[in-house]
Amino acid sequence: MKYRSVFDIIGPVMIGPSSSHTAGAARIGRVARSLFGREPKWANISLYGSFAKTYKGHGTDVAIVGGLLDFDTDDVRIINAIDISNERGIKLRFIEEEAVTDHPNTARVIIGDDKGELELVGISIGGGKIEVTELNGFELKLSGNHPAILVVHNDRFGAIASVSNILAKYEINIGHMEVSRKEIGKLALMTIEVDQNIEEKILNELEQLPNILKVTKIVD
Amino acid sequence: MFRNVAELVELAISKNKKISEIMIEQEMDVTGRTREEVLNFMDRNLRVMEEAVERGIKGVKSHSGLTGGDAVLMQKYIEKGNFLSGKTVLDAVSKAVATNEVNAAMGTICATPTAGSAGVVPGTLFAVKNKLNPTREEMIAFLFTAGAFGFVVANNASISGAAGGCQAEVGSASGMAAAAIVEMAGGTPEQCAEAMAITLKNMLGLVCDPVAGLVEVPCVKRNAMGAANAMVAADMALAGITSRIPCDEVIDAMYKIGQSMPTALKETAQGGLAATPTGRELEAKIFGIPRV
What we know:
The complex is a heterodimer. Chain A is an alpha+beta fold. Chain A is built from six helices and eleven strands. Chain A folds into two domains: 137 residues, CATH 3.30.1330.90; 71 residues, Alpha-Beta Plaits (2-Layer Sandwich), CATH 3.30.70.260. Chain A is 29% helix and 35% strand. The mean pLDDT of chain A is 92. Chain B is mainly α. At the A-B interface, strand 1, helix 1, helix 2 and strand 5 of A face helix 2, helix 3, helix 5, strand 1 and helix 7 of B.
């Protein structure tokens, strides 16, 4: 089931005017920000389908930028997000895409700074709820319903077992897990949804494991 | 976990509990939160709804200038006392409009189930409140009942205008409100489902065609009529009238209609009212695009 909580239906509390095109858009931006781990210096934001056709009216562009600035859906600063971002020297580019996507409310957000880049595709499925469908070229399905950790690793035997062993050691229960790779034997991405928040020291421990390249977390 | 309206009603009957109570218990199960936490969270959402209505009733104006002030007109009209339909219905209309006018003005609202349809549930709640004098707990329960029905629609069909048209947004909101009104008025779980079915049947096929892509025209007035629809359907269900087509099948029909609806009529501002001469003219004026 896509919607699990009654507060997905009666909620979120948000700045208008659209739950999918404003609140959902802000959440897509905020997930990207959370995964990037810091404020980006630049952002290229591609909008598809209904997002591309109506973003001006709905403030979708403003909301995604608000999310990139780490503003929540009910943060009134969303209204001035583009001005705030200009003041902070973040370079923004918006692209209205013509391509037809699986979901009408799709955004591709590429953000970066001198140290790195991140590319994320998010869809806004209604009522403010979003899913992340692609991260740095890996397909995934991240609901955002639970805290989650994302592990970039080499596609080798034992990598998945070593990560789940550490989680087991700290008595962390895995609710949902999937693995995605671009090519056999190259890079792969584990998406692990868990029931509780994961401490930094566990993330560090995971990162020390052989074949594990990068570990990031998303808080519920 | 209930997956459809039939299971929801069955659970309520077998446990001899209200729909709202089934929703509260499921929320506690799913999230691991205590009853108090779940109720407090909903109370916070209720406060946001109250504040939005209070603000809208005083009069707001959107940035585009397309909407605002109609809630005030309606309240003044009610005060004069010469209305034709009914005070509670018109009060619901006014408060639904108030909420959506605040939404259009980029104010703070609570999505129910979406922002574009955020007026219907609080509009009816605060109007029915004046008639039934519920406790705070009963007002919170109203939102859980509405949420329970919305939960089924969201999981089995859609609550997104871009995916299913306005029937998925104001249609769903209206059905949710009708069911919640019935419970607050002392109706049975079956009657809640009937009210939802009757309401949604009359919203089927409603397209999402916002002028200039703004959540203003016709969204604000669709919330008004969504609230009126919910009030009348609730009265019908309480009168003992039932829907020949079961609620779950109506929801399924709504989903399929949404799938077959052309993209131009699903929140792309390319068809319907958005594509009328006046709609296009307003769009050009708002965004400063020279007329072709």
